Amino acid sequence: MTSIKTETRGNASPQKPYEQPFSHRFIAGRIAGVAEILIMYPTDVVKTRAQLAVGKTGNMFTMLYDMWKQEGLAKMYRGIAPPIMVEAPKRAIKFSANEAYKPIFISNGKLSQNGAIGAGVLAGITEAFVVVPFELVKIRLQDKANQGKYNGTIDCVTKVLKSEGPLAFYKGLESTLWRHALWNGGYFGTIFAVKSYLPKATTENGVMAINFVAGSIAGTFGTILNTPADVVKSRIQNQSGGGKYSWYIPSSITIAREEGAAALYKGFFPKVVRLGPGGGILLVVFEKVSKLLREWDQGRQN
Q1: pLDDT tens digit string along 4-55?
Q2: Which of 59, 105, 110, 278 is the most exposed place for a label (fewest CB within 10 A)?
Q3: Could you tell me if 181 and 119 are in contact, meaning their C-beta atoms sit under 8 angstroms apart?
Q4: Which domains does the chain possess?
Q5: What residues contact 231, with CB distance under 8 A and at least 6 apart?
């Protein structure tokens, strides 16, 4: 949590350090997440289609151009409703859970890089339980092969519920746990490491620059770690009934055996293009909005 020390005047008792409320992180997380999605979402559609394809796919730029030319701009944002809906709880959980878990790993009043990784992993596991149903609907809508099957988000939810039952929305939970634990552990652990090596910023623009650099590097590293789990998750969630993909490790072995180990990194380039800079956008917007809310709250209390 963000703490600010306050002065003690005269015989007045010391004021408690300012603790930023959960509602601030919730608002800041939602704004940061929605900003990142609106900017980077088309690359996520390309990523999903590449992950679902068996065989070779074109490069990201070719796929984006073909999608825009053949399907139009609207289809580049197909399936965006579920991510937008889940951004508030997802990003709030990502950042607030990470802060909540940090005290577990503090030793001698300090948080180590290993502690930052541990808190990130636990935050990712917590986050995964929230996002699974939304991810499943998003994957179904993003797959080009499903365009005639589902007529939008509500239709997709209704048809999945009717034909596969409510538990279908938690398909791929185990691989999603892997995906989020790996990404969040890598993301928050790398932010901790990068910031410890960079000089301390003395201006607001400097703070934003450091946050963007640290968030971008961290987002890239997290993507390197979790792409195989993301590929497996996408394939599991796109199966309407039973299929050959189930748990993360066995499914990874199946994909590597049938398509080569490189197939576990299908969609990596559009994914890293999104989550590298996207991780920077997330951190910059989150910290900026949190700062504005903190200043507003403190001004209101004075």
Answers
A1: 344 444 454 445 555 666 677 777 777 877 777 777 777 777 777 777 776 6
A2: 110
A3: no
A4: 22-296 (1.50.40.10)
A5: 51, 255, 263, 264, 265, 266, 267
- CB under 8 Å to 20, separation ≥6 — which residues? 1, 2, 290, 293, 294, 297
Banded pLDDT at 88 (limits 50, 70, 90): low
Q: Which tens digits make up the pLDDT trace of 102-140? A: 888 988 888 888 899 999 899 889 888 888 888 888 888
> Which tokens sit at 216?
């971008």
Two structure tokens written together for 100: 């909540």
Contacts for 246-249: CB closer than 8 Å, 24+ residues apart: 247/174, 247/175, 248/174, 248/175, 248/178
Amino acid in position 1: M
Residue 57 phi, psi dihedral angles, 5° rounding = -125, 160
Decide: helix, strand or coil at residue 107.
strand
